[in-house]
Specification:
239 residues; alpha/beta; Rossmann fold; 2 domains; 6-stranded mixed β-sheet; 4-stranded antiparallel β-sheet; 10 helices; 10 strands
């Protein structure tokens, strides 16, 4: 099976400081792959570069096509979508209007957009209840649902999720990651960057450990969760 995503020898620098150094990642269709690591390791930079938001060297190959010359909008049109850590919602706009922005690339097909909106409301009933509220009035968990829902409006094949559990209470973390895992039912593959390593490895099929801009470990998520160094460093225990 051809990988859905191949990142090869990716390098990103801020001035003279190389934040991501020769990172290579591959994932198959239908997989959830997670990248864990400490703050400042380069996880967010990795996702931003893959999405086309930062200049980088190396290759990002999606569904057999090199994305190097494509801008962000073109990547979204191909089904490649980033949900950023900051969520980047428009607080003064309603929930419904924020969702419709996610379908911007498909705005000419009104029927398809309406179908997507109904599907998102079906998956996130809370958003349906609050569709006329301004985004700034939502709770943290509801804002994350809105960010995910907006991304789904683009009908992606691949979602890049940056810290979806950030700032959420433990019960809401479990709910958001349950929703993330359920997106496979839609044929969506997920590259998940997550500070909560335990939850990330419980959710993912495969994992990478990123430290100081480099991959230092990788393997099936269940195996990484039992690795002595991963347990001691990221899971708060000893093997």
């Amino acid at each position: 099976m051809r990988p859905l995503l191949e990142i090869a020898d990716l390098r990103v620098a801020y001035g003279k400081v190389e934040a991501v150094r020769g990172v290579s990642i591959a994932m198959e269709p239908g997989q959830i792959v997670t990248v864990i690591g400490p703050n400042g390791a380069g996880k967010t930079t990795l996702l931003a570069a893959a999405a086309g938001l930062l200049r980088s060297r190396g290759k990002v190959v999606y569904d057999g096509h090199d994305l190097g010359r494509l801008d962000v909008e073109e990547r979204v049109e191909r089904g490649f979508c980033l949900v950023p850590e900051s969520r980047e919602l428009f607080g003064d706009m309603t929930v419904a209007d924020n969702l419709l922005l996610g379908a911007y690339a498909r705005r000419r097909n009104g029927t398809e957009v309406k179908e997507s909106l109904q599907h998102v409301y079906g998956r996130f009933p809370r958003l349906a209840e609050r569709r006329r509220q301004k985004a700034q009035t939502l709770s943290g968990g509801e804002r994350q649902m809105l960010a995910l829902g907006r991304a789904l409006m683009a009908r992606p094949r691949l979602l890049l999720l940056d810290e979806p559990s950030l700032g959420l209470a433990p019960l809401m973390v479990r709910e958001i990651l349950r929703i993330v895992a359920s997106l496979r039912e839609l044929g969506v593959s997920i590259l998940l960057v997550e500070q909560n390593a335990r939850a990330a490895l419980e959710t993912a099929d495969y994992g990478y450990v990123l430290e100081t801009g480099e991959i230092t470990n990788q393997g099936p998520a269940a195996v990484l969760a039992k690795d002595a160094r991963v347990v001691a460093t990221y899971l708060g225990g000893s093997a």
